[in-house]
Design brief:
This protein is mainly alpha-helical. It is built from 10 helices and 3 strands, in the order ααααβββαααααα. The chain has one domain. α2 packs across α5.
């Protein structure tokens, strides 16, 4: 998971002597707890707020709507109750994709604004889309993880000009690519017990191919307007293909 914005893939199973923490589960302590009763969750303000914001995202965000439709067409229909879970997390993350359960975790104690929820859901749905369409080895192949992190940072809106300005990061030429690379590296380091050099090497080796993989958007959606156009193009593309 990516500290602060909360990105990233998997938290996973133990493998031999490898600790669970190597896969980032330490950032999501509720993953290993017994689920709370509906009554307790209903009375928990953070949980209620998370559920309301999630519904708003799924109903109104063109980023999320495009990804949900693309996953459905790929044979991976997403169900709200099954594939999203609002939980308490470590203070440095906002969300994550648990590949072991095909579930997106939303950090109810760290997501406080609708725009933040929109971005986190989009980021994690990109991981879910990659999980659906490709044979991603989240747990053993750091290049696979790096590729999905690059795509998520590139296509989710994580690196828009406004978000970067809010982080007091400024730049012109090549700034978007720099942001994508930096955030992908940070995400890997958050959920894998690897050196910074290993994370950087993995990102650099797959960067060009994965940065230019724009599925299912077909473009880098730098704004909600871009995402709406991408969603319309995706729908029209499918109608065109159906008539061939």
């Amino acid at each position: 998971m990516e500290p602060g914005e909360g990105d990233s893939p998997p938290a996973a199973e133990k493998k031999g002597a490898v600790e669970e923490d190597d896969f980032g589960y330490r950032l999501f302590p509720d993953r290993n707890k017994k689920p709370q009763s509906f009554l307790v969750r209903s009375l928990f303000t953070f949980h209620n707020r998370c559920q309301v914001m999630l519904r708003m995202t799924l109903e109104t965000s063109p980023y999320a709507q495009l990804l949900l439709e693309a996953m459905k067409q790929s044979g991976c229909t997403v169900f709200n109750d099954r594939h999203f879970s609002c939980e308490n997390c470590d203070g440095c993350v906002s969300g994550g994709f648990d590949a072991a359960t095909s579930q997106i975790v939303l950090c109810q104690n760290n997501i406080r604004q609708q725009s933040h929820m929109n971005r986190v859901v989009t980021h994690e749905l990109i991981h879910a889309f990659d999980h659906c369409r490709a044979h991603v080895d989240w747990f053993k192949n750091v290049k696979h993880l790096a590729c999905s992190e690059i795509r998520a940072a590139n296509l989710s809106g994580d690196c828009t000009l406004m978000n970067e300005m809010a982080r007091f990061k400024f730049g012109l030429k090549g700034h978007h690519q720099t942001c994508v690379r930096d955030r992908a590296i940070r995400s890997i380091l958050a959920v894998r017990n690897v050196s910074k050099e290993t994370a950087e090497k993995a990102v650099d080796e797959v960067f060009d191919a994965c940065f230019n993989d724009l599925e299912p958007f077909g473009r880098i959606p730098h704004s909600k307007a871009d995402a709406r156009r991408a969603y319309r193009d995706f729908q029209n593309r499918d109608r065109y293909n159906a008539n061939l």
